[in-house]
Amino acid sequence: MRKMMYALLVSMVAISMLAGCGSKNSNSNSANSGQSASNESTNNASTNNGATNNADTAASGQIAKIGLGHITSIGSSKDMEGDTLATAQVDTTIVAAAFDKDGKVVKIEIDNAQSKVDYDKDLQVATDLNADNKTKVELGEDYGMKKASSIGKEWYEQAKALGDWMVGKSVDEIKAMKTKAKDDHHPAVPDEADLASTVTMNVSDFIAAVAEAYDNAIDVKAGAEKFGLGNNVSLAKSKGLSTNDGQEVLPAAEVNTVMVATAFDKDGKVAGTIIDNAQTKVNFDKNGKVTSDKNAEIKTKVELGDEYGMKKASSIGKDWYEQARALGDWMVGKSVDEIKGMKTKQKDDAHPAVPDEADLTSSVTISVQDYIAGLVKSFDNAK
């Protein structure tokens, strides 16, 4: 009996020990299972972070915003004195830039409209006011810088090299460019190793215009792939010394530089556009002396805002910048052909092409032919 009881007790202890071992292994497996799940979760998180980073990388470098910057000077205008005849010179630096979501330059166009109105000894306009006025980029080899360049590069080539250097950089990085003074006319020539053989012109205005383009940048529709700058320059409203109803009319040069920066999608439709006009006047007295302040800040029509003063004379109560913005908004989503096909009507001699579209009649009464032409140029120049 005792032997039977002893055998039964041993069996029970053995079973208990086996059960304990089984329980321990089960807990260990659960712990290992938990660790594996944790590792799997961590691995999945790494994969997701990689996908997110890839998405961010894909988004970086795509056009998210576009901006237009410009600086205008009349400082090189000349008085009539001795053998020197009066000349109005308007230099408008133009920088159109496309930025990604991180504020880095994706695409950029740099140009300068150097426009001159010459006067003869009687202070009559000697320049052909109906001539085609080209910017420095449009002039290309005809601008004539190459022969005087220490690196044998024309203006448009140097502007392109500077723009290429800016691509991929933020505005702060661009503003931090190392420069050096070459002479009084070149106080800020690039002092960067990768620009030494490609850019020797003064770059201060270009850098300032890039910063302005960024500060004024607007959002564009998703899918923008190409970006272009269009412009047209007119001297047609310039006048010489004359009289009108017995009153003396003094010489005055007027240069209108229309600028249109546009982003296009893969189908060539407008994803966003900015329209502006630098209407610059250089006034002279009856002796041919410049009376305009050569050092004054010159603002475009958009920069002037309500100060431009169109609103009080507008039949729809809108100033120029408001009408330009409404016109640009109307262009978004349309192809160049659709925009060129806009219905217009002649209001008077000064307004030969006012929109005759139902959705523009309450927002745009300015003549739009020059702005449409600028948009077309921006498409033709888009890259």
From TrEMBL:
<keyword id="KW-0732">Signal</keyword>
<feature type="region of interest" description="Disordered">
    <location>
        <begin position="25"/>
        <end position="56"/>
    </location>
</feature>
<feature type="signal peptide">
    <location>
        <begin position="1"/>
        <end position="19"/>
    </location>
</feature>
<protein>
    <recommendedName>
        <fullName>FMN-binding protein</fullName>
    </recommendedName>
</protein>
